[in-house]
Amino acid sequence: MPRGSGSSPSSIPPSGIEMIAVLGSVNMDLVLEAERIPRPGETVAAGDAFNGALAWALRERPLAEAIRYAVAAGSIATTRKGASPSLPSLAELLAVIGKGR
Question: Which of 41, 48, 58, 97 is catalytic?
Fold first, then answer.
């Protein structure tokens, strides 16, 4: 899929996952390469973690960087059971971002 094309992919290649953010009717997208996660654990609160981290990061960071924080937070949340216990701390999030994962 061409970057910034405003179109949606017809499939995701088996070699990896592309993360796509679409901004409503503005026809804007952002595609970032992301590590394939073989099998997520529990997904309870993963969306909450993603959205919370995205909102937090957008206060001071560019969109691409904020999305990296959001993806990391959502990913961490899938490694634990339960809603509140699955939400990462800021220290955990910064550790994952610092490793470039």
Answer: 48
